[in-house]
Amino acid sequence: MKLLRHRLPWQMAGLVAAVLLLALVVFRAAVYEPLRPRAVLPEAQASAPREKPAAQAMVLSVRGEVERGKTGGAWSAVQPGQKVQPDELLRTGAHGATDLTIDGKSRVSLAESSEVSIRELTGTVHRFRLTRGRMSADYDADGERVMRVENEAGDAVAEAKSARFSVLSTGSGIAVATASGGVDLTARKLTVRVGAGQQSFAPRGDAPSAPTTVPTAVLLKVGNSLAGESETLCAEVDGTASPGSEVTVDGTPIAVAPDGSFHQVVPRRSGEHSVRVDIRDPSGREKTGTVPCSPTPARIKDMAIRWKEAP
């Protein structure tokens, strides 16, 4: 009996210690044990946003000489119904033009004497690089997708989500004219919004001009500043056009200053008596002017010496 009385406190103490240890284990498991990540349910996976498939650009129509190719590769004639892929080039001749559709929702047209490369055709971005000439777009809104048209150097970009507009790349810069909607023209870290009925011009290496109203008439003023007669020169053509316009003299593109002024010396050619000047403005309107050649110096065709006889 005496031995049992000595054992009972120790047994009770052991039982209490065991209960406390068990409580500590349960407490740590419930409070301090990190939660395990839950498995993703199939429904959650199905509701995740899906990336839009790549866009498809297809040729709708071809007029005159239109070719496709890749940088450094051969060129081939373009046919209606063909699909155009990223990294491909399209170019048109002096009397050529072509129309494309993007996913059947938007239309892109490449005018005569133009060249463009397709840089990107994804579900959200349609990017083109207009090396020279003019392209126009009737671009409908479709979520967050955008169209980007950049100049030859890629440092000036026109961007639109929903607009009807045209872009003209002249080598001297890039111009945008908007018929409806709005287009953002960005160059030199400055962006201007070109609204409906407006145009803007970004000279090469410079920021875009403030948007102005598209003129109702095509501006073209030309004259011959060559003074006097010349045996070797036909004319020194001085002229003024709308800023951002493309000007050719006898079919050769020439540089146009940001204010629209230009100057070109034209050598004399056999059988030609005038110089032809053509203009294409950012909206795609065209106008032609002529400059007469300066006269050539008078030439002595026959000379006779008569000696007076002595009386």
What report would you give on this structure?
With 311 residues, the chain is mainly β. The chain folds into two domains: 57-212, Sandwich (Jelly Rolls), CATH 2.60.120.1440; 220-292, Sandwich (Immunoglobulin-like). It has helices spanning 2-31, 42-46; strands at residues 57-63, 66-69, 75-77, 83-84, 89-92, 97-102, 106-110, 115-121, 125-139, 146-150, 156-160, 163-169, 173-187, 190-195, 198-203, 212-213, 220-224, 233-241, 246-249, 252-254, 261-267, 274-280, 286-292. The chain has a five-stranded mixed β-barrel with strand order 9-10-11-13-12. Strand 10 and strand 11 form a beta hairpin. The longest helix has 30 residues, at 2-31. The mean pLDDT is 86.
CATH topology of the largest domain: Jelly Rolls
The spatial strand order of the largest sheet comes to: 9-10-11-13-12
Count of separate structural domains = 2
Q: What is the CATH architecture annotation of the largest domain?
A: Sandwich
According to CATH, what is the class of the largest domain?
Mainly Beta
Q: Report the structural category.
A: mainly beta
- Give Rg in angstroms: 38 Å
Q: What composes the largest sheet? A: 5 strands, mixed, barrel
Based on Cα principal axes, name the global outline: elongated
Average the pLDDT over all residues and give the rounded result. 86
Beta-strand portion reads over 45%
Which spans have pLDDT < 50 for at least 5 consecutive residues?
none
Number of strands: 23
Helix-strand pattern: HHEEEEEEEEEEEEEEEEEEEEEEE
Q: How many distinct helices?
A: 2
Distance linking N and C termini: 190 Å
Share in helix: 10-25%
